[in-house]
Structures are given as C-alpha cells and as structure tokens.
Amino acid sequence: MCFMPFLSANAQLENIIVELYYISDSLDATDTIGGNLVSGSKTYRIYADLTANAKLRRMYGDANHPIRIESSEIFFNNKVDGQSFGFDFSKTRLDENTVALDTWLTLGQTTKSSNRQGGILKINDTNGSFIAGVGINDGGSAEIPEGLLNNTNTLMGIPLSIADGNDTLPYIPTDANSIGIVSLLDQSDSTIFGSLVAGKIFESRNAAVFNSGTRGVDTLQNHILLAQLTTTGELAFELNLEIEVETETGVEIIRYVARDSVLLEDELLSPFLTYPPSCGCQDPNYLEFSPTFSCSDSTACLNLIVFGCMDPLACNFSSSANFNISDLCCYIGDCNDLDISIVCPELSINDLSEQKLILFPNPGKDMLSIQANFNSNNWVSVQIINAIGQVIYTNSQLKPSSGNTILLDDLNFIPGVYFVSIKQDKQLFNAYWLKQ
User: What does CATH list as the number for 352-435?
Assistant: First the structure.
C-alpha cells in the first residue's frame, strides 16, 4: 500500500511508501526469548521517496510540528536484542528468533555502519536473505527446525526467506544520533521503540533522529527507510523531514512538515507525511480540489469549475458560474477595459422618459430617492459609479416601498456627478445624479 504522488515536479519529497513487510504466524509466536510476538502481528516499513539530488538529514518533532507514531494496539519490541534505532543492529544478530521484527527508527540503515546494510523495498531486493529461511534463522526458543519468519502469506508480498529488504549501502552515513528518545543518563528507552514499557503511541515536540545525510540503497530511486513498526493494531503517524538538496548554486535545506498551522520560511507542507492518507479530489478543475490530499478519490470531484462573473449587479452576471473572476465583470461605466458591446450585446439603456425613472432631489446631498416602474415583489440592485469609473456604492437587496420608491441614505461621498445604475429582473435603468 502506497501514497499516490501529488506534489509538484520540483518537490524533493515525492512520496511516502508504507510497505507491509511481514505478518507473523503461529510458529513465530512460539518464541519466548524475544518476547510475546502475537500471531498475526504486522510489520510495516516506512520509506521516504526522494528525488535523486536529495539527501535525508533528519526526522524530527519540534514546537510547531510534533512527530507522532501510534497504533490501536501495543508495538512489539524484542526484549533481548532489540534496538531503538536501525543503525545500532549487528548484522550477525538479525537471524536470531524475532529480532528482525523489532520496532525502531532509522535514516536508511538497518545495521551498524561497519556492516553497511540499508533498507530497500522487498520488490527491489535481489540479493536474497540473511534473516530467514531454512538453516538461517535459529528457530527461537522452540528451536523450530525450519526457523522463524517463514510465513508465506500472500498479503505481505515476497516472503522474507526470498527477500529480506536489506542490501549493501553504497556509502556510510556518519554522525548517526538521536535526541528525545533514549535516556541521556543510562541510554534506556521507555518509548514504543524500547522493550521496557509496552506502548501504543510516541509523540514528541522535542525529538529527532539525524546523521550527515542519507540516500537510498538505490541512489536513483532514492527510497530511504525511516522506521520499522510491528503491531496487531491500526497504524497512524505524522512525520517531519529535513532534506538537503544539491542545486546549481549550492546546498539548500528544506523541511517538509505534516501540519501547516505554522509554516516558517524554509518549511513546506507535505500531505504524504500524515498516515492514514487523506484521499480526495486532486483534479484542480473541480471545486473540491485541495493540495492537502495525498491520494486521489475521483468520486470526490463533483463540481466542475465554471469561471464567470458572479456579481448580480454586473451586466454579464452568470448564474451558471461557481468560481468568480471579478475582472470578467462588466458594469455600465466600468467594464474592466472590456468592450461592453461584446460582453453585454443585449444590453440597452432604457429611455428614462419611457421608464419614468425619477431621482430626487437632483441635485441632492446625502439622501437619494429613486422612483420607477418597479415590481414591488422582487429585489432591486443599485450601483453608484463615480466619474472615473469606480463603483463606490452597491446594494443588491433593496425592495421598493409604497409608491415604487427606493430610498438611499448616508451617501456621504464627495460632491460631484455620479452614474446611478438600477437593475431589477431584466430591466436596467440608468441616470446621472449631481451630489452637492
């Protein structure tokens, strides 16, 4: 199961991939050396998919963007040889009991640097397995002859005895370290990544795993392993990544975050960093489109965008439009540099004498009464436009009083000649008013 790509072409974080790495069976559950691994536990591996010119330097939580990893059930941790971080494992111990299913964080590495092993998707792993298979895994406390980790459930794809998702790193990252996870006093770990305390959630605004910069085992694909998590429950997470990018002008640092409540100058929101993925309309031609969706749900795209002028006072008001473009609106006296004879060819200025439009007092001061052959049951729209074409007064919810009159008051703009446009249904009335 994977997130579908959506970020723009120049984004260095192209995707987050969640791989179902293994499903434990009843033989795995026999082991008591590593602890209680429940049959049916699922081991997931989380990968960042970066562009080839990018390195991953840090996975973190800070004051504005917490790191959060949780499950509806507790996470499994091997109680004897388990580690909090993938870069602390000895390769020679990963074939013992259930060590290879431990829960941990990392930046690419699955063993110590001296062993040079890194995580790779099983479908891309072609060098076999050193953790599972007959004569490889030690069988655990029950000394299972064929060894543990041999489940062939098709839901998890390739069996670990054929491909274990580990391969030789083409380089060795340096300065691998962490903050906010293990104790500074005795290096003990009471989080979900240690075996001291069984837990369902890790959340921190002051934690990080970091190194000098990591690329994937295949530096072109550049899939970088972030975590391995084993649980019988439903998985959820929010991650934040610091990425180093090589450009023509040098090195740039970009931080991709899961939440956009606060975004600093060097931070970008990535919908991929939240799991389960939020699926919705990814087609920008629909009103329901949002860049926060990490996967596509075509059924969520309901209303095709129709551009137009949605101002009922405009002569080219479009009742079918659902996305307003104000520059398309054309008014008498102010048509946004458009040709009104083309934009509103059906428009004709009504003869004031025939329509019996009366503005009074005219000249006047701060109050204006408008009288015409209005339909007393329908709304009337009024616009007042100054001598340079600016709309300085508008009201689309006026109802005629007795005597077919509309009263406007508090017209406290500067003295001058104004163009008054009155519209009701398909009738348009226009006149000039001199304000004193």
Answer: 2.60.40.1220
